Fold this sequence. Notes:
- The chain is mainly alpha-helical and about 375 residues long.
- It folds into three domains: about 5-145, Up-down Bundle (Glutathione S-transferase Yfyf (Class Pi), Chain A, domain 2), CATH 1.20.1050.40; about 180-240, no CATH class; about 290-370, no CATH class.
- The protein has 16 helices and two strands.
- It has helices at about 20-40, 50-75, 80-100, 105-115, 115-120, 125-140, 145-175, 190-205, 215-225, 230-240, 255-275, 280-285, 290-325, 335-345, 350-355, 360-370; strands spanning about 180, 210-215.
- Strands 1-2 form a two-stranded antiparallel sheet.
- The chain is globular.
- The relative contact order is 0.06.
Amino acid sequence: xxxxxxxxxxxxxxxxxxxxxxxxxxxxxxxxxxxxxxxxxxxxxxxxxxxxxxxxxxxxxxxxxxxxxxxxxxxxxxxxxxxxxxxxxxxxxxxxxxxxxxxxxxxxxxxxxxxxxxxxxxxxxxxxxxxxxxxxxxxxxxxxxxxxxxxxxxxxxxxxxxxxxxxxxxxxxxxxxxxxxxxxxxxxxxxxxxxxxxxxxxxxxxxxxxxxxxxxxxxxxxxxxxxxxxxxxxxxxxxxxxxxxxxxxxxxxxxxxxxxxxxxxxxxxxxxxxxxxxxxxxxxxxxxxxxxxxxxxxxxxxxxxxxxxxxxxxxxxxxxxxxxxxxxxxxxxxxxxxxxxxxxxxxxxxxxxxxxxxxxxxxxxxxxxxxx
Length: 372
C-alpha cells in the first residue's frame, strides 16, 4: 500500500496514516526539498519564476501538507507513540525552515527577481508571493551577522520545543481529569445523548454511572444544561486551571507558567535581534495592522462600542437568574446555563432541540453542495 502522506492528489487520507509512515515521509521530503534548493541556489541562470520560485514553492508545499497532516493528528489524537514520533521530527522540521529563511544566496536571488524586468510582467498573486518571501527572509534573520544568526536559530528551535511541550501539558491535563457521578439527581438537566456518552465512558472503565471529562463534547453540555450548580463549578474550575499552578496534584510538573515566561523572554530576544522593539511588532510585520498601538486603539474603540450592550445583556441575565432561578449572584460557571434558560424562556428555542435537525450526514452533504 502506498504511503498516504506522500499522496498529494486529493484530500488527506487520515484513516490510512500510520505512525510508521511519518519519519520516512519527512526524511524523503526533506531530501527532495534540499535537492531542489541546492539546484536553484547554484543555478547560474537569471532568477525566474518558472526555474526558481515555482520549484521551491512546489517542494515546500508538499512538505507543508505532509507535516500539516501529522501536526493535525498529533493535536486531535496525541497517543504516546504519535507524540514521541512528532517530537522527534519537530526539531528537524524547525531547523530546515529556520536555515531556509537564513539562506543568503536564496535571499539574493529573490532580490534579483524583484528588481528584474520579469517582475513587472508577473500576476499580482506572484508579485505578492515574491514580496512575502523577501519579508520572510528578513524576519527569518537572513540579514543578520553570523553570530546573531546562530543565536536566532537556537531561539527558533527552543521556541518550537517549548510550544510543543506547552500543548502536550495542556492535553495531558485535559485527559487526566474526569468526574464520575453515580447519583442520578446530580445529572438532572443534561441532555440524554450526552448522558448516554457519559455512561459509555464510565462503562469503559468498568464502572456504573456517568463519567464527565474536560473534552468539549462532555464539558460544554455540563456548563450549559446541568441543573446542579456544584457540578458546573467543579467542571469549570478544573477546566480553567488546566496545566497551571492551580491544577490538581496529579498534574504536578505540567504547570505551563514557566514555559509561558520562557517563551515571552525568547520572543523578546528574537525581536530585539531583528531590530524590533518587541515581539508584537514582529508579528504585525506580516499583518494588515501597522503597529501595536493601532491594534490597541482598535480594540479600545471596539470595547467602547460593545461594552454598553454587554452590560445590558449581563444585567438581563442577572435579573433573570435572580427572579427565575434563585441565583442572586452570577458566577462564571452560571453564564452558559442561565443564558440557555433565558433563551428557552424568551424564544422557546434550545440548542439541544435544534441539534436533531443537523445530523452529521446532512450537514456534510449540504456543506459540500455549498462548496460545489
